[in-house]
Write a structure and sequence with these properties.
Blueprint (H helix, E strand, L loop, with lengths): L16 E4 L3 H14 L3 E5 L3 H11 L3 E2 L3 H4 L7 E4 L6 H5 L7 E4 L7 H13 L3 E4 L7 H11 L6 E9 L17 H17 L4 E7 L11 E8 L3 E8 L10 E8 L2 E6 L13 E6 L4 E3 L6 H18 L9 H18 L13
Parallel strand pairs: 1-2, 1-4, 2-3, 4-5, 5-6, 7-10
Antiparallel strand pairs: 7-11, 8-9, 9-10, 11-12, 12-13, 13-14
Helix pairs in contact: 1-8, 5-9, 7-9
Length: about 350
């Protein structure tokens, strides 16, 4: 079996982290990742000070700040992990020390206008700002990228995302008030990954909609096709409402080229939040399918990867901040195009001639 890159290099030295926000993503992913990788957390702040103190006590964090001003008072000697809802990001960035390094929870704002504002603030304050599009850093997707770069798949002909699961939306009550849900907070990961692998498409066709089985959510189903011309077909079929048991639940990427193909399983979305193992399979043209042994999973290894890149860029070890705001604004433009396409009237069928 071929050797494929699955992990981002660790920094030779680490910079302490200050976390802004103490929500579920912090306790479920950020803090476990940082503990596992040895990234020290200097302090944490949340508007809910009791919540922040509780998280600090549980994870052995020395400082639970009483205000945002107190959290940012130490200046640029720390890396700031801003893990907040999209609408709250801009106001916090305006207080982050000039020239500091920041990792911002995805998405990059709730819409393209907010994303553009985040980009403007980052430029004005000279922030080394990255967005936490961490799926790019998962072991399986690092391996897929490496396989593509090694030309193991040849010329890409097919990229297909197929998700048919039963997502427990009740675990995310904050989404009930959002006008944009499925693409904005879920499929955005897939769109970002695809764009990072093959660039921005020429255009998009998309339809995203709600479902009576998830009546509190604006959208839980999406169909999208990204236009890469006549050679590469790229399609996403997303359904979060398959409540007929696990037998036919599915969450896979398929990458198919002229020389080989890869199929991945994204296990965290199956039986969420318990999840199932990630999988990666490779077949050379004319050969059998072989499973690639994975060195970890999306949760939490990808969170280690994205912070490793941020740390290494901060230290001067990595030349590029992979998910910089300058790069990720293009993902937000793609997301915006999908929502705009959703409102384009469908072409009507031609009339049947009458006798």
């Amino acid at each position: 079996m071929m050797t494929l890159k699955q992990k981002w290099a660790k920094p030779s030295k680490v910079t302490p982290i200050i976390i802004i926000g103490a929500g579920g993503i912090v306790t479920d992913a950020h803090l476990p990742a940082y503990k596992q990788s040895g990234f020290p957390v200097h302090g944490i702040f949340d508007l809910d000070q009791e919540r922040a103190r509780s998280v600090a006590n549980e994870w052995g964090i020395e400082n639970s700040f009483k205000s945002l001003d107190e959290a940012v008072a130490s200046g640029g000697q720390y890396i700031y992990d801003v893990a907040l809802p999209p609408a709250a990001i801009s106001s916090v960035l305006e207080k982050i020390p000039v020239g500091a390094t920041v990792l911002i929870q995805k998405p990059m704002g709730a819409n393209f206008a907010q994303a553009s504002h985040i980009l403007a603030i980052s430029r004005e304050r000279k922030l080394n700002a990255a967005i936490n599009f961490q799926l790019r850093f998962s072991p399986q997707m690092l391996a897929v990228r490496d396989a593509i770069e090694q030309n193991l798949l040849g010329d890409l002909l097919e990229i297909e995302v197929h998700l048919n699961v039963n997502t427990p939306w009740h675990l995310f009550p904050f989404l009930k008030s959002m006008e944009r849900v499925e693409i904005a907070v879920h499929s955005i990961h897939y769109l970002d990954l695809i764009r990072s692998l093959v660039g921005a498409p020429k255009g998009v066709f998309a339809r995203t909609m709600g479902d009576p089985r998830s009546e509190d959510m604006a959208q839980t189903r999406t169909t999208a096709m990204l236009d890469y011309g006549d050679k590469l077909r790229c399609v996403l079929s997303i359904n979060h409402n398959h409540n007929f048991g696990s037998k036919f639940q599915d969450c896979k990427f398929r990458f198919e080229g002229t020389r080989g193909a890869m199929v991945t399983q994204i296990g965290v979305n199956l039986n969420y939040p318990e999840g199932e193992p990630d999988e990666l399979w490779f077949a050379e043209l004319g050969g059998p399918w072989e499973e690639v042994t994975l060195q970890g999973s999306w949760f939490v290894d990808a969170f280690i990867g994205v912070m490793s890149n941020v740390q290494r860029f901060h230290n001067g070890e990595d030349k590029a901040l992979v998910t910089s705001v300058e790069d990720c604004i293009e993902t937000m433009a793609l997301v915006e195009a999908c929502f705009e396409a959703n409102h384009v009237p469908s072409h009507k069928l031609p009339k049947i001639p009458t006798i």
